Amino acid sequence: MKIFSASQLQKADKISIDNQGITSEELMERAATRAFNEIENILDENKTVKLFCGIGNNGGDGLVIARLLKNSGHKAQVYAVNYSDKRSNDFLANNQKLEKMGLKPIVLKAEEDFPKISAEDIVIDAIFGIGLNRGIKGWPAKLVHHINHSGAFTIAIDMPSGLFSDQVPSENDAVIKADLCLTFQGPKLVFFLPQTMDYVNEFKVIDIGLDKQYLESLDSSYEITGRLEAAAIYKPRKKNTHKGNFGHTLIVGGSYGKIGSVILTAKTALKSGAGLCTLYIPKCGYIPAQTAIPEVMVLTDEGEEKLSEIEFDLEPDVICFGMGTGKDLVTKEAFGRLLERTKKPMLVDADGLNILSENKELLESVPKNSVLTPHPKELQRLIGEWKDDFDKVNKVKSFVKKYNLIIVLKGAYTFVFSGEKVFINISGNSGMATAGSGDVLSGVITALLSQGYSPENAARFGVYLHGKAGDLASADIGAEGMISGDIANYMGRAFKTLI
Ligand SMILES: NC(=O)C1=CN([C@@H]2O[C@H](COP(=O)(O)OP(=O)(O)OC[C@H]3O[C@@H](n4cnc5c(N)ncnc54)[C@H](O)[C@@H]3O)[C@@H](O)[C@H]2O)[C@@H](O)CC1
Ligand SMILES: [K+]
């Protein structure tokens, strides 16, 4: 699923109206009716709905919803948030229809007019949608705070009012905090960025029937990775195969006290379908690794406690480097030599990334199309500071183009940057914020690379599977109870959900 900008959606509205031979009022009726159907599904008859309508088309949607609520016998109070006297045509048309039914919106013009909102009420926010072009100021801003402080379950129509679709609000801007956002046609980029995601606790996409062909023709850098997209990438195994078909992964990492990290990565690689897996670790890790995973082969470095040479006599299909290595000079130098010798795309994580950040000249030697998996702090060390999330996204886009790499930026929504594209993953949960979760992610992506997935698909699919395995683990044992080894243990079941 592509993510469209506000201007693309506004244009798609117009084109759909023309192609379908309908009026904009009819499109509004369709969009708002579908939103109403969702609202009705979760409405409890005893609840009072307080609808706050702006005076543009987002407000028009609110008025349609008010009419439908009244028709189906719900208790609804409708307020027109009169921040200006320039009402849109479709707002006016729907206001008339509502008045004909004997329901006249109460006009709010100042703070004295604000109604009491109790925590038991349901608020529908139809004040501003994608037409927002400046921060909300004055008494409407106070109304937004009044709604946010009420404790009422708040449903935003299309966008939480005050949230821009293409910029981060400033600290002084008033923005609705929506428990649920019913968003038209597709989610907006700001729903996924760390600085703005908290305004949308949950969102549901309402298909308002815009012209499919036109939408498909639109260019967008941003795409969602959900179940459908993951299933399209998945290549089920053929019957006539042997372990050699699924590749040999070499996982290089670990140091004294941090052998667990590479063990987790290797275990996950095997549980994600890698045919063979060899661990390359300092000597001190030999017994723990052999004991923890009998299926893995273990090679040891000359170094007792840290990697110092990285010499091996095998031809892996993919090399993964960096978890638990530390950044010692001998390790850095051995990593540099490994990069020089490696031609196939590899995966670099954790201290591997920190070594690259401290020795930027090494970035030129990272094989093209390699996958780097930083968390935000590691990313900052790699690319420098950013002003806000939009600036960060642009900086990462330039970085991946400059070095021909793929960046997996880990977070509540993990972003995969590849060429012009940014893929936003929607599986996963807060239980995955636990030690070693990143080591597991490296394991699954490495295993997919070894099985012949392209680096972009391996990154995108691996991130999805990692999140899905986390969701299955959380459903069974709870977000607090799960540890990263559980994510590895649920990997097979994550694949099975795609069959
Ligand atoms: N035919 C269509 O175009 C459809 C539009 N729909 C709805 O229409 C919405 C967009 O409607 P509009 O373009 O009328 O815009 P909004 O309803 O979001 O905003 C109304 C107007 O307020 C003004 N404004 C913006 N920021 C302001 C601020 N901070 N303070 C005061 N005034 C401000 C702008 O002039 C803007 O056009 C969508 O989000 C969606 O809810 C849907 O009904 C689907 C169909
Ligand atoms: K809204």
From TrEMBL:
InterPro entries: Carbohydrate_kinase_pred_CS (IPR017953), CARKD (IPR000631), Nnr (IPR030677), Ribokinase-like (IPR029056), YjeF_N_dom (IPR004443), YjeF_N_dom_sf (IPR036652). Residues 9-216 form the YjeF N-terminal domain. Its EC number is 4.2.1.136, 5.1.99.6. Binds 1 potassium ion per subunit. It comes from the Bacteria. Gene3D superfamilies: 3.40.1190.20, YjeF N-terminal domain. It catalyses: (6R)-NADHX = (6S)-NADHX; (6S)-NADHX + ADP = AMP + phosphate + NADH + H(+); (6R)-NADPHX = (6S)-NADPHX; (6S)-NADPHX + ADP = AMP + phosphate + NADPH + H(+). (6S)-NADPHX binds at residues 57-61, 129-135, 158, 324, 375, 439. SUPFAM superfamilies: Ribokinase-like, YjeF N-terminal domain-like. Its cofactor is Mg(2+); K(+). AMP binds at residues 410-414, 438. Residues 226-498 form the YjeF C-terminal domain. HAMAP family: NADHX_dehydratase, NADHX_epimerase. Homotetramer. Bifunctional enzyme that catalyzes the epimerization of the S- and R-forms of NAD(P)HX and the dehydration of the S-form of NAD(P)HX at the expense of ADP, which is converted to AMP. This allows the repair of both epimers of NAD(P)HX, a damaged form of NAD(P)H that is a result of enzymatic or heat-dependent hydration. Catalyzes the dehydration of the S-form of NAD(P)HX at the expense of ADP, which is converted to AMP. Together with NAD(P)HX epimerase, which catalyzes the epimerization of the S- and R-forms, the enzyme allows the repair of both epimers of NAD(P)HX, a damaged form of NAD(P)H that is a result of enzymatic or heat-dependent hydration. Belongs to the NnrD/CARKD family. This is Bifunctional NAD(P)H-hydrate repair enzyme.
